[in-house]
Amino acid sequence: MNFRRGRFREEPEINFIPLIDVLLVVLIFLMASTTYSKFTELKISLPEADAEKQTQRPKEIQVGIDASGKYGIQKQTFNFTNVAALAVALKEAAAGAADPVIVINADAAAKHQDVVHVMEAARLANFPNITFATQTSPTQGK
Asked: pTM higher than 0.90 for the full model?
């Protein structure tokens, strides 16, 4: 005899509400216990060297660029026409010095293209040593 013939058996259901509650508690725990640190990959220790000061410094060629795009080489104005002319002016300012350092003093509001012109002219003049002059902000020194 089959007494269960008329009965319909319900399939069991998974209740997601308790699962969501547990996951929310785990998420809150992870957020509260995690420490967020910025720039941890930039913590470096620089090597130390015991070297004497250089007695002979390389020649520095000062190149200035103002906000309006005017150039100055060794405190003399230069009217920019093209990169090749700027390279010739850099060679003249070097006065035969071997491997001079090009120091770019660009205004903060100067165009990026003007700085790239100086870098390209230094490449054409075979001067691979380029550096940029900066100044520290008044609040940084305190």
From this structure: no
